[in-house]
Specification:
The protein is α/β, with parallel strands linked by helices. It is about 25% helix and about 20% strand. The chain has eleven helices and 20 strands. The strands form six sheets. The protein has a seven-stranded mixed sheet, with helices on both faces.
Amino acid sequence: MMRTGSGMFTYYGVVRGMALVTALSLAACGGGASGCAVALPWAQATPDLSDGSGGTNRPEHRDKPHLVLVSLDGFKPAYLEKFELPNLRRVAARGTRARAMIPVFPTLTSPNHYSLVSGVYPETHGLVANSFWDPDRGEGFSLSSQAVADGTWYHAEPIWVTAERQGMVSACFFWPGSEAAIRPTDAGDDQPGIRPTIWNKYDGSVPNEDRVRTVLEWLQMPDERRPHLITLYFSELDSAQHDGPLDDPAVEAAAKSLDHAIGLLLDGLDALPIRNRLYLLITSDHGMVETSGEQTIRLDGMIDVTEIERGFSGPAASLHLKDPARAPALRDQINDALERGRAYLRQEVPEEFHYRASPRIGDIVVIMDEAWTLAASSRPSTRDVERWGMHGWDPSLPSMHALFMITGPGIRQGAVVPEVHNVDVYPLMTELLGLRPAGGLAGRSGHIQRSIIE
């Protein structure tokens, strides 16, 4: 789980998937314009909005493909070979996989999930970490707070908003941002936000089998109300890796549990009448590497931490200062003492990280070497293990690489491509669904399309 420090520091290196947000929606889907066909205890329907689908696909969309986007939080591509995962290998044989998907920086849950569905970097969409401070708002965001349901925190248009505003029904069985009513990229401040037609408050206790069964039920709805875009999220592997060393039997067990869920999904999709016009896109947000208490470095041994207004520690630490003019001096103090990382002013962060433009990024950003973390101060460990999994480092590190697999009409079978990039997934999805993408994208559909289409 997220470990929260005292005072002005928050440790954002560890979030067990989205498992901190545990509110269960007791509102069942209604009929009619809401678009829900079955009453499910965890599903909510979006009220009709002037710029949403209203729960009904426009006639021009009804013969278009369907796309199921799956996230296996924390799944390393190497696990396809390391563990016996017959169903994920079945996906690979049927379609195309990448040896690596390059995540965005920082390699954390919220930034990467939202870049996957928006096609822009965190400095643009605003989710610069799992927990962060917004100096303009004077308040903070975290996955464990009600802020996740406030659409004004999100500064880019996700794929379900792109679909809904063009009259295509969407449904999300968990995904960061899907609980919020988010305005389109080109909308004015007076325009209401848009949610998926069907959405869910996150509840990690919902069994994988129920998640899969619900998605399959959505895909059996009548043409006019059947979602063409569906998201599906699983967190158990991420949680297992954070709990202990990566060679712990619990990690393999979690991977095999996910493989079983994918098998149920595949079997169900194969039985659908629409199976020949359905894309299955399986991704993850980041990889994982082992770390330990001995690889944690104290910030209070380098600078006077009382000069920090708000700080977020971990593999990529973000420091908001009481006096921003002190940033160069404090950066130099940190770099003089730090042997396992480097401190930058926000405007100095290496260009390849695309991590400069948002004021939600601290005045100083400390990027640690692989497997090393930065903490505000030394506190007794509450862990009962010596080593555990962590993520958040440089996206170019193989340990941080993510999963990408796709099957569907026209996709090359049994193909392996060297790498794809997280931000290219959104434009690929709009291309497959026949949607106009939002403006201002960092990603390009052609970057992936050229390598996966027959």
